[in-house]
Amino acid sequence: MIIxxxxxxxxxxxxxxKNKDEKRPIIKFERKIPRDSINESSMYMNLHxxxxxxxxxxxDDNGATIESVDLNKLITKxxxxxxxxxVDKITKEDLTRKxxxxxxxxxxxxxxxxxxxxxxxxxxxxxSGAEYLVExxxxxxxxxxxxxxxxxxxxxxxxxxxxxxVTIIEGVRLKDIAEGEYFMCALPLKIKGVDxxxxxxxxxxxxx
Length: 208
Ligand SMILES: [Zn+2]
Fold this sequence. Notes:
Elements: E1 2-5, E2 26-31, E3 40-44, E4 52-54, E5 75-82, E6 89-90, H1 92-95, E7 105-109, E8 124-125, H2 127-136, E9 140-143, H3 156-162, E10 167-170, E11 180-188, E12 196-205
Parallel strand pairs: 5-7, 6-8, 7-9, 9-10
Antiparallel strand pairs: 1-12, 2-3, 4-10, 4-12, 5-11, 11-12
This protein binds zinc ion (ZN).
Residues 48, 52, 54, 170, 196 line the site of zinc ion.
């Protein structure tokens, strides 16, 4: 069994969306050895910083919040698609040759995986790509960018996917992962009533 950790490391200098300082985690030691006999720290962080799972509530005030996301869609067989040649955005045309089947969880590997910095020109899923994924009946999609859409009016990619029950993961790191099938474990922190949560996500080859 081989375990691939596809999560970002959470740290002060990590890449964050649009390089906004308010998106950076603040990690603080509350107690420190030897003074306090114990090391104990706290953290303040935007829930969409780093590798995370979005909840429908992110774009819909009546949408489900993260603690109710179905774990059957996050602990599942999955497939990495190599889209590293795609420039700018993933459209229907980029996906049609990938033989996508109903019930699949797809991880989209793009050129985004080759830098840890925020790139304003990051590859995202354009509306026709999102509609095609819905048409194919997938259960979820992960992308290696800080967001699955980029400056789209009305968040059409998020909404198209969420309205059709597709789970969205953002910020996975796929540089070292070859196209193919893996078992995925993605577990968002169980925080009540919020729009997303950080997750440690692994892909497993040869599960047993
Ligand atoms: Zn997000």
